[in-house]
């Protein structure tokens, strides 16, 4: 575990003293060159400081990249099955720490305990899955057009990979990036989101505990400007894997462009669940509640739009509103709570702004929620009611812009065809789903919805680690995380030709 120094708790707080966490560079926990730290507070109760973290800058980034570049020289030559043994061990140790890490995660980002347990579990799944790749990473052999010539394709690692990770899945998403990078022989510098550095500290601690060699994984905490930008711009970084907003992703892409640095971008979404007239309405309501309000609507894949056939619109809406009103909002550590706070004040403000925008949109009706919650101890956190707008038109701002909060728009449509059209009408293409009992419609939707992820009779969330994760249009830049696709992000193909004829043979020219 990281070396930690207790800090005096603020006079107002009865909570234990906050712990100061260091950067992890070259196998050591070290203070930033700036000598400064920043606080991470609990979004459910801002009186609690979850920890303090290094406010790093370019000097720390340079040290971390140098350590990763040095470590790459030997790590790339460690046999992949041996690299995988460390990764497998990480999966086992994460099981040991699962409850503790989930509690830390709930305290730092707010989602309820069963969801933070799921987040840690996703890192466990990814560890086991990528450990298996230690003995696969298959290439191809294929016949040559010439005699006495052998040929094959093999994967080669890139080198130092930079990772900029978000706060909504603070351990799962780092694991999607770190585990495939490592098993393929790359080294890593990760910059966690400033709202959730503790989960990455915990993850990196376990990698260290399980024997990852010094310099193979490095972590530098701090802001996008002071840490993220110098990391992206560093000439020794070969790839940048980023998850966050489309706006920031665009600048990551622009920074990588001139030097042809690889970039793998996972960005916004405006995911829709379609409910057809033959759907099992109870099931569809369950799905849209879980997809819309799970993680306080802060999934990239959150169900932000529900597109409903007019024939079942009223039935769906009545049941949905009744259930949304009953969701219990509060501190995610309380097992009876369904939905935690927004991650930060600025996220809460965004939600409030969209409620204002929705209230002013001509025709949209606020059906439930719409307010910040401030009763009792809730006033110390960033809590907001589950909020639903009805009769939303497909082109309203509510229905087209990513909100990243507990706000769901219900959009009535006349037909299956119109549902598909509305589903595809946004600039994003991450996830979508359809509820129908008609197998033909389900297959047509599967073919015609232009997203990277599609569900039938299930919500827009719930991706598993061994399938590709990512999206089309403004959601991504053509890459996918997780699954076999992740191997293509963190390696490059090398085609190898072996001529054992002893004579000069010319491809395409010798008949
Ligand atoms: C995200 O949507 O931000 O699909 C990531 C899920 C999780 C990962 C979600 N496995 O719900």
The top level CATH class name of the largest domain: Alpha Beta
What is the β-strand count? Answer: 22
* CATH domain fold name of the largest domain: Aldehyde Dehydrogenase, Chain A, domain 1
Largest sheet: 7 strands, mixed
**What is the assigned CATH homologous superfamily of the largest domain?**
Aldehyde Dehydrogenase, Chain A, domain 1
Radius of gyration: 24 Å
**Residues in helices, as a percent range:** 25-40%
Distance between the termini: 64 Å
Which molecules are bound in this entry? Answer: 2-aminohexanedioic acid
Q: What does the average pLDDT come to?
A: 96
What structural class do helix, strand and pairing data support?
alpha/beta
The low-confidence runs, each spanning 5 or more residues with pLDDT under 50, are: 1-13
Biggest sheet strand line-up: 15-16-17-14-13-19-20
Any guess at the CATH architecture of the largest domain? 3-Layer(aba) Sandwich
Shape type = globular
Number of helices: 14
Residue share in β-strands? 15-25%
Q: What does this entry show, briefly?
A:
With 511 residues, this protein is α/β, with parallel strands linked by helices. Helix content is 37%, strand content 22%. The chain folds into two domains: 35-138 and 160-267 and 476-490, Aldehyde Dehydrogenase, Chain A, domain 1, CATH 3.40.605; 271-456, Aldehyde Dehydrogenase, Chain A, domain 2 (3-Layer(aba) Sandwich), CATH 3.40.309.10.
């Amino acid at each position: 575990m990281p070396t930690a120094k207790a800090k005096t708790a603020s006079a107002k707080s009865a909570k234990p003293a906050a712990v100061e966490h260091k950067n992890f560079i070259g196998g050591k926990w070290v203070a930033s060159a700036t000598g400064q730290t920043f606080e991470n507070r609990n979004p459910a109760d801002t009186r609690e400081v979850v920890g303090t973290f290094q406010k790093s800058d370019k000097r720390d980034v340079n040290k971390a990249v140098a350590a990763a570049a040095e470590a790459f020289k030997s790590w790339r030559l460690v046999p992949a099955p041996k690299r995988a043994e460390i990764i497998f061990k990480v999966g086992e140790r994460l099981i040991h720490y699962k409850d503790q890490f989930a509690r830390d995660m709930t305290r730092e980002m707010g989602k309820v305990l069963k969801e933070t347990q799921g987040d840690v579990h996703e890192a466990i799944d990814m560890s086991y899955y990528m450990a298996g790749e230690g003995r696969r990473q298959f290439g191809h052999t294929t016949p040559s057009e010439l005699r006495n010539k052998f040929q094959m394709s093999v994967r080669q690692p890139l080198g130092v990979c930079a990772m900029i990770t978000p706060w909504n899945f603070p351990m799962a998403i780092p694991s999607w990036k770190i585990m495939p990078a490592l098993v393929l022989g790359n080294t890593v510098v990760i910059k966690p989101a400033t709202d959730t550095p503790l989960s990455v500290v915990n993850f990196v601690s376990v990698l260290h505990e399980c024997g990852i060699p010094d310099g193979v994984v490095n972590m530098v905490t701090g802001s996008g400007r002071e840490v993220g930008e110098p990391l992206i711009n560093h000439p020794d970084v070969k790839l940048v894997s980023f998850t966050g907003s489309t706006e920031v992703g665009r600048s990551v892409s622009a920074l990588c462009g001139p030097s042809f640095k690889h970039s793998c971008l996972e960005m916004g979404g405006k995911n829709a669940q379609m409910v057809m007239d033959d759907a099992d309405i109870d099931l569809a309501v369950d799905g849209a509640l879980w997809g819309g309000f799970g993680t306080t609507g802060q999934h990239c894949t959150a169900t932000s739009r529900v597109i409903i056939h007019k024939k079942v619109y009223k039935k769906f809406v009545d049941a949905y509103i009744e259930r949304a009103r009953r969701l219990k909002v509060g501190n995610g550590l309380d097992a009876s709570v369904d939905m935690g706070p927004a991650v930060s004040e600025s996220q809460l403000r965004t939600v409030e702004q969209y409620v204002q925008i929705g209230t002013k949109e001509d025709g949209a009706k606020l059906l439930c929620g719409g307010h910040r919650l401030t009763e009792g101890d809730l006033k110390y956190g960033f809590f907001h009611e589950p909020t639903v707008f009805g009769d939303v038109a497909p082109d309203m701002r509510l229905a087209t812009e990513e909100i990243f909060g507990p706000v769901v728009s219900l959009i009535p449509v006349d037909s299956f065809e119109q549902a598909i059209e509305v589903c595809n009408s946004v600039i994003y293409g991450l996830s979508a789903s359809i509820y129908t009992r008609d197998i033909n419609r389900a297959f047509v939707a599967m073919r015609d919805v232009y997203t990277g992820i599609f569900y039938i009779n299930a919500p827009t969330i719930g991706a598993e680690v061994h399938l590709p994760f990512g999206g089309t249009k403004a959601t991504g830049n053509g890459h996918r995380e997780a699954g076999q696709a992740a191997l293509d992000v963190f390696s490059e193909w090398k085609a190898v030709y072996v001529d054992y004829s002893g004579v000069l043979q010319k491809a395409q020219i010798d008949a």
